Amino acid sequence: MHRTARPILLAPFALYMGLTGTALAKEVELPRTMAWSAYGTNSSGYTQAVAIGAMLQKNYGTALRILPGENDVSRMTPLKGGRVDICACGIAAYFGAEGVLMFATPDWGPQPLRVITTSIASFSMSPAVAGDLGVKTPADLKGRKISYIRGDDALNKGTEAYLAFGGLTWDDVERVDFPGYGRSFDGIIAGQSDAAFTSTVTPVAQQLASSPRGITWPTLAPDDQEGWARMQKVAPYFQPHVMTSGAGGVSQDNPVDSASYPYPIIVSNADFENDTAYSLIKALQDGHADYKDAAPGAAGYAMDKQNMTWVIPFHDAVVEYYKEKGVWTDAMQAHQDQLVKRQNLLIDTWKRFTDSNPPQDEAAFSQAWMTTRADALRQAGLDPVFE
């Protein structure tokens, strides 16, 4: 199983500045216009993209055109079709790279994605639990009413991962289906549900915190190795995270041991032009002070917040940049090589599968693909993760 790790701890200042005999850094040379897809206009991901665009325009004369998308497929489609250079995506980028869930369909399959950068901020991704229940850990959710959002794989997989940390599955709770994310929180306030997955700083979490039920966030013990192994078996993209921003009074003075994953995940296709990819990561780091306070969560793009051994491979030019900075290690390269090997295997397997006259029915197609995918990964000594 390929597991996540905590964000890297950088080497001393001299090493960070690249004073290690590596090649001199290149200059930033960006096109006059770039196109990104991002979350909807009322999201923090969109606001961050706007802040980055202002920095690129000011420092490099590059205009950023942002295409908002209301769901995972609508954000990924322009990248797949070449209409945008970059997607400021959510965790669906990982699902796309793996060819699973909504991407296990004839029109999709595993995508050749590469990370440019990610943001890990002070908030977490967690089930918000009604505060009148006394829930302290995921194990305390046993027998409770848990929201399931129809058609939202990312939220449901997040809930499943927290249940797994507590040694639970959906069979151990009362699943309550809702037609949408907002309705799931209305359901908690109305007593129809007890918990729903969310970012800890969203307006719906604040709304629950202000309701008569109140809000609490389950704690994940950092040293519970078995719990983390179960969680990452379900969702390898989660990593330990100390939450210092969250509804219900979470702060620097009142932190919560929790879990999170990057948001947004800034990805390109593997064939994104090397010089542009290099210039973009350099611009994002060199100009971080110009946008880090301009949007909620933008501080999370700092280099010391990056997880260099995550679940999607970096773009080759980004690896080159980190090598120049002196922060890229042999262990990181080995991890990168394994991720690229995994992705190439998935893409090759997909081609053979789609050339083999697979079932025409979409449900049967997806089931057959997932079986073929799992077999190919196992034969290569890799963890299928999604089955």
From TrEMBL:
Q: Per its UniProt entry, which superkingdom is the organism in?
A: Bacteria
Tell me which stretches of the chain form a coiled coil.
Answer: none
Protein's name according to its UniProt entry: TAXI family TRAP transporter solute-binding subunit
Q: Which organism is it from?
A: Stutzerimonas stutzeri (Pseudomonas stutzeri)
